[in-house]
TrEMBL record:
NCBIfam families given in the database record: asp_4_decarbox, PRK09275.1
Swiss-Prot/TrEMBL keywords: Aminotransferase, Pyridoxal phosphate, Transferase
Keyword set includes rRNA processing: no
Domain Aminotransferase class I/classII large as annotated: residue spans: 191-510
Cofactor: pyridoxal 5'-phosphate
Lineage: Bacteria, Pseudomonadati, Pseudomonadota, Betaproteobacteria, Burkholderiales
Gene3D superfamilies attached to this UniProt entry: 1.10.20.110, Aspartate Aminotransferase, domain 1, Type I PLP-dependent aspartate aminotransferase-like (Major domain)
PANTHER family given in the database record: ASPARTATE AMINOTRANSFERASE
Entry keyword annotation includes Cell membrane: no
UniProt-recorded name of the protein: Aminotransferase
Organism: Cupriavidus laharis
GO molecular function, one term: L-aspartate:2-oxoglutarate aminotransferase activity
Enzyme Commission designation: 2.6.1.-
Source superkingdom: Bacteria
Length: 541
């Protein structure tokens, strides 16, 4: 591919550029394409899925029991009376079937540890998995919100002191969460065209692209993580948030693509800034937090100012399920800011929501999100599908009941062994163990890799001589390896994002060898162009 072609494609989102790389990588029918650009994991949680299917069978028995006099395949709604006793019989009869013992344990956990009514829980789950009723409440099923809330407390708050309660809105994954939030923030005048928002860079590309659309026309300010300091934000960068013109700060934590969580020191420093800026809106996307040890979300540190987005997709291998939640504290600045809007704006919003409540001025921001997600007029049919909510609940209970965190330990071991294989074959040791590294992705940065091997002169030559995406296109065309460009996520230097989640360990070893081969070729070109005699084998296994 010629340089003009690459320059033309450079403006594409990395997820669109990926399609061009895939075309090149798959052009050789005799070669296996290795697509490490996908964040979709190739692992998944089996136990809560077994539980889902067995719950479905129990729910079907309950449905057929209601209309047992009709042989034509007509069932009825499950009956609340006696459902707990009937489930106990079911659990004993099918105790040998995978998933049934998990379900029995879940019912016990809900009753004994969470203090909820087991019969009410089973009824909500059966009605939900049968999908025979609209979601009620539309924001999230009642007991489901309580249970998923306990999971969020465990994984996002942990042992951090947390005062008060929070609400959840079950949504179709992190994608829907972003879409709904940007829309409702605009509709409720929390941000308006021309406002400045800060983005914690690097960041998931849509957080860069969406604010630039005509729908929003927001001005973006970068708060850059420092690759030389394990991708942490310096105090100087975070101090940009002290400027009153900055209305909001959006970040992904742990980051995408560096895959590093904010250090405790940075979290505390940011929290101190928010104390001085009580009007600052925070949106934290913490989808990778469940891969970290003792993770604490900014939502735990600054709940009044923070909107939390969490997706079940990556940790449970559930991208196709489209499961996510938005969380807001019940005492938050969003409701306060809406109540303090100018009279004209408050009147406009009063009219917007008057068809769904007799007191639209008191409608909470999170419930405005629900209404806006269905263009207000369809609020009565809003809400995530009930089978999706049931699977979300079972994922949550699986984690809550796994007190040794054996699943989490297995996930971390899996992705870190893949990272070790990749770097071993590249021939450059990864950074020393970083307690904040999550390792869902790794970022192969030209400056870091080249500088570590051959020094700054080689790096300067590469940056001056090579188109930013040339290395990625050559990897795709010559080796069938697909990586995503780091530039699309807001990195400073040309780089490639490697997902450590979606291929097997042997595949990452092959990718490492392909990168090593390409690296050696550029060392030879560097020597020819500069007259230096750098050893292309300086990168040793």
């Amino acid at each position: 591919m010629s340089k003009p072609d690459m320059s033309k494609l450079a403006s594409l989102s990395p997820f669109e550029l990926k399609d061009e790389l895939i075309k090149l990588a798959s052009s050789d029918a005799d070669r296996l394409m290795l697509n490490a650009g996908r964040g979709n994991p190739n692992f998944l949680a089996t136990i809560p899925r077994h539980g889902f299917w067995q719950l479905g069978l129990f729910a079907m028995r309950e449905s057929e029991r209601s209309f047992s006099y009709m042989p034509e395949g007509v069932g009825g709604f499950p009956r609340r009376e006696g459902i707990e006793e009937r489930f106990d019989l079911f659990a004993r009869e099918f105790a040998h079937v995978p998933g049934v013992s998990f379900l029995a344990g879940a019912v016990s956990y809900v009753r004994d540890q969470l203090g909820l009514n087991a019969g009410a829980f089973l009824y909500e789950m059966c009605e939900g998995i049968l999908a025979c009723s609209y979601p009620v409440p539309d924001r999230m099923l009642k007991l489901s919100e309580v249970i998923v809330g306990q999971y969020i407390r465990k994984e996002m708050i942990g042992n951090h002191p947390f005062i008060g309660e929070f609400d959840l809105f079950a949504v179709e994954g992190g994608t829907a969460a972003m879409t709904y939030l940007f829309n409702s923030i605009r509709e409720n005048h929390l941000l308006k065209p021309g406002d400045t928002i800060a983005l914690g860079m690097p960041i998931f590309t849509p957080y860069i692209e969406i604010p630039e659309l005509n729908d929003y026309k927001l001005v973006e300010l970068s708060v850059d993580a420092d690759p030389g300091n394990h991708w942490q934000y310096s105090n100087k960068e975070l101090d940009k948030l002290r400027d009153p013109k900055v209305k909001a700060f959006f970040l992904v934590n742990p980051s995408n693509p560096p895959s590093v969580r904010m250090s405790d020191e940075s979290l505390e420093y940011l929290a101190s800034i928010i104390e001085e800026r009580p009007d600052l809106i925070i949106l934290t996307d913490d989808v990778y937090g469940t891969f970290a040890d003792n993770f604490v979300s900014l939502f735990a540190m600054c709940p009044r100012n923070t909107i939390l987005v969490y997706s079940f997709s990556k940790y449970f291998g559930a991208t196709g399920w489209r499961l996510g939640v938005i969380a807001t504290h019940r005492n938050n600045i969003f409701d306060e800011r809406i109540a303090q809007l100018p009279e004209a704006a408050r009147k406009e919003l009063h009219e917007r929501y008057t068809s769904i409540t007799t007191e639209p001025d008191k409608l909470k921001f999170i419930d405005r999100l629900v209404a806006d997600s269905r263009t207000v007029a369809l609020n009565h049919t809003a809400g995530l599908s009930t089978p999706q909510q049931v699977q979300m609940v079972l994922f949550s209970l699986f984690s809550l009941m796994d007190t040794p965190d054996s699943y989490k330990i297995a996930m971390k071991r899996l992705i870190r062994s893949r990272k070790a294989a990749l770097y071993r074959e590249i021939g450059i040791a990864p950074e020393a163990d970083d307690p904040n590294a999550v390792d869902y992705y790794t970022l192969l940065d030209i400056e870091a890799l080249g500088g570590k091997a051959l020094g700054p002169d080689f790096v300067k030559w590469v940056l001056a001589s090579v188109e930013p995406n040339e290395l990625l296109f050559r990897l795709a065309e010559e080796s069938g390896v697909v990586l995503l460009p780091g530039r699309g996520f807001g990195t400073r230097h040309p780089s490639g994002r490697v997902s450590l989640a979606n291929l097997n360990e042997s595949d990452y070893a092959k990718i490492g060898r392909s990168i090593r081969k390409l690296f050696e070729e550029y060392v030879e070109k560097y020597n020819a162009a500069t007259g230096n005699k750098a050893d292309k084998n300086v990168v040793k296994k």
